[in-house]
Amino acid sequence: MSSPVPEPSREAILDFIETERAAGRDAGRREIARAFGLSGGGKIWLKRLLKEIQEDQAVDAPGNGTLVAHPRGALPPVLLSEIKSKDRDGDLVAIPLEWNEADQGVAPRILIERAREFRAKRNAAPAAGVGDQVLLKLTRLKGVDGFAYSGRVLKIMGKGKAQVLGIFRALPDGSGRLIPIDKKAQGREALIPKGRTAEAQDGDLVSVTLRNETRFGPPEAHVRERLGSIKSERAVSLIAIHAHGIPNVFSPATIAEADAARPAGTAGREDWRDLPLITIDPFDAKDHDDAVHAAPDADPDNPGGYVVTVAIADVAAYVRPGSSLDREALERGNSVYFPDRVVPMLPERISNDLCSLRGGEDRPALAVRLVLKSDGSKKTHSFHRILMRSAAKLSYQQAQAAIDGKPDETTAPIRNTILMPLWAAYGIASRARDARQPLDLDLPERKLVLKPDGAVDRVIVPERLAAHKLIEEFMILANVAAAETLEKAGSLLIYRCHDEPSLEKMRALSEVLASIGIKLPKEAALRPVLFNRILAMIKGSENELFLNEVVLRTQAQAEYVAENYGHFGLNLRRYAHFTSPIRRYADLIVHRALITAMRAGDDGLPKTTTLAELREISTRISAAERRAMAAERETTDRLIAHFLADQIGSSFDGRIGGVNRAGLFVKLDGTGADGFIPASTLGADYYRYDEAAHAMIGERSGESWRLGDRVHVRLVEAAPVAGALRFELLSEGRHVTPGRSGNRPARPPISGRARAKPSFGKAGGKKPGKRR
């Protein structure tokens, strides 16, 4: 039997299209399949890949069956970019902000359209400068002076990179030097002349403007602003806040609006204060924006069914469209959660007071009543604008302990009447969830426990309880109901969508699986169940955590959009965030849309709202979410680097979590700390990067290091300010026959190597919660 024809790469297909068109020949699906010898399942695969390439704007389909390739690096219509320079005519030039040249090649240049050309228009382009992060509306150009696109500035999203952040180090003569916080800039310090220090003290976090930058010697910098001392780890989150331009001080107008807000009354609301809704949150939560209740359905036509109620704080009652509170909430997009502080989307007067569902206090809410059948499927649902009074405030641990037969004085009186029905309703809801088969990743979530001074005390993996899953499942049900209600009403809304993995990522996953002896089945349509089968196969093996991470990397990034395309990970056709308007602007839009659809007040989504407006809002809040995720991750990295800084020379066990031409990325067991091993330090051999095998392979020795390999390393350098760690290898690599591919090792694959099985915990928590 002949072996199957290997699937060509995306790049190979684009090369073929370009070559054929340059030669004046047609290049359609039929010609591509013939050129690469594809048939049967290969043609199905090709059809899907070409659709994906077309959606990415990498090719055009004129309509005659042929394809025309665009220059590599085609971009979406609206893009977050960074203005890098000016051209010879003085026009601004930008590149995509999220661009990896190692993987994607040279970044396409974007010519910024001049603001004066739009002054007569209603939405004049904001004035931007070199270094600014901007949201651009792109137009494709046909090779104008080497530019692939022109871009109109929709919004300036962050401070210019020309304002570099770093730590000020004082010198005896009154001058100073700047230690940059950017990992990529480590070792490239700047000199700050005497008189240009703005009286910064040694150890201050400062913003500087670079001057007189040359190719030789350090550049000169002038301090623009002192941002606070970095001598305490409690100030580490300041670095991420300022580096990413996260707004963290509310304007006087916003504070005044919040202070002037008064509790909403019963007018226009259903009185549900007698319904014993309860909140279940992390033990250290300061705001409580969702409450739940469940009871057996009394309807004889629904035997074994339950009525589940989810009530969410009515933020729209206080944050009106167009107000200062609203504008600043949109600017922030979401709350940002650091180990030592929270940068909230709304002032505390709103988030921690008026919209916090405190026990025994009247609060306005939007509630959804879900009627579940005995198999967990939803029979009906309805939305209501209510006044409620929480019957109890519980932590996850309290609620779980009560269910497990260890109630305390708070949970004992409500165990049988409130908690047991909730768990029973969750039991039937989980049946429907299991039948739906969403993506079931099991990754431990690090939690940093800090000392009073803000330093890391220890790193833990909190136990994931049934109480966590209960709240998560009920919130998902409420989010689905919100999307369904608004679609039925014909309302505009913002969806939470998650695309299926790209073919390139699936190819990479297939290579990783093949390296440990697992064959990825070829299916015409991707479904989460495919990944669940893979994860079930390696359950309990030493590859379990590693492959959970690889499958996670394979997934697309969820985003907010105004036009629905479904949620792949949850395996849902429609999904919208409804359950946390205190900390996510998308949820506030959905609340307003529901209020308008229900005719429940004049504070809903304005009737003048357009699809174009929601598209722009979706792009902005998706960018804000990515900004928050990066800031949170970097802060955790910096705190852990501080934690490990006094352990230079110590050895650790870990796993290779990434491989590229520069070297190996290693994730340590226990702390989850990430560090780097430069390729030049791997050994006396010359190590070649094998992209297909995700490995570094010695040219002479055949010693190889591959993605997922267990390693023993020594910490040789820690840069806490940058959150960077450097390791050296202490353990030996596997050996392959020189010249053979690294994914066909001479030694057994990972799964067959005799190593101690690591023990991994499970993670949970609702706030900040998983960003589904």
Automatic annotation (TrEMBL):
Residues 735-772 are annotated as: Disordered. Keywords: Cytoplasm, Exonuclease, Hydrolase, Nuclease, RNA-binding. GO terms for cellular component: cytosol. InterPro entries: CSD2 (IPR040476), NA-bd_OB-fold (IPR012340), RNase_II/R (IPR001900), RNase_II/R_CS (IPR022966), RNase_II/RNase_R (IPR004476), RNase_R (IPR011805), RNR_Ribonuclease (IPR050180), S1_domain (IPR003029). Pfam families: CSD2, RNB, S1. GO terms for molecular function: exoribonuclease II activity; RNA binding. The keyword rRNA processing does not apply. PROSITE patterns: RIBONUCLEASE_II, S1. Its EC number is 3.1.13.1. It catalyses: Exonucleolytic cleavage in the 3'- to 5'-direction to yield nucleoside 5'-phosphates. GO terms for biological process: mRNA catabolic process. Residues 649-730 form the S1 motif domain. CDD domains: S1_RNase_R (cd04471). It is found in: Cytoplasm. Belongs to the RNR ribonuclease family. RNase R subfamily. 3'-5' exoribonuclease that releases 5'-nucleoside monophosphates and is involved in maturation of structured RNAs. This is Ribonuclease R.
